Predict the 3D structure of the following.
Amino acid sequence: VKVIEDRCFFECSNLETVVLKEGLTHIGERAFDKCKNLKEMYIPESVGMIEKNAFRGCESVSFRCVENSFAHTYAVENNISYKLVKVRTPKIKFKKVNVKKVLKKLLKRK
């Protein structure tokens, strides 16, 4: 996956921790909008664009990102909490989410 499309995970209240893989380049507008339980988001160095309001309504989110990466700059400019990591793959334990089920649920909303 290279792009997370606009509103892809809109209002996904089950998301708590998300680890995005190296190779992702773009996070779309409002991609994680209103994911109110989202706490941790690992964003790899390969991400070079995060659109406006991608994390609107995610008051508790904290980025895990590499220093001087696009995600780091975005966090600073948008007053998003962050922790700098030195490795590409974080050592974070996270709850598994069945993406197929989440996407089916989202598609039924439309």
Summary: Strands lie at 3-4, 17-19, 26-27, 40-42, 49-50, 62-66, 81-85. Residues 99-109 form the longest helix (11 residues).
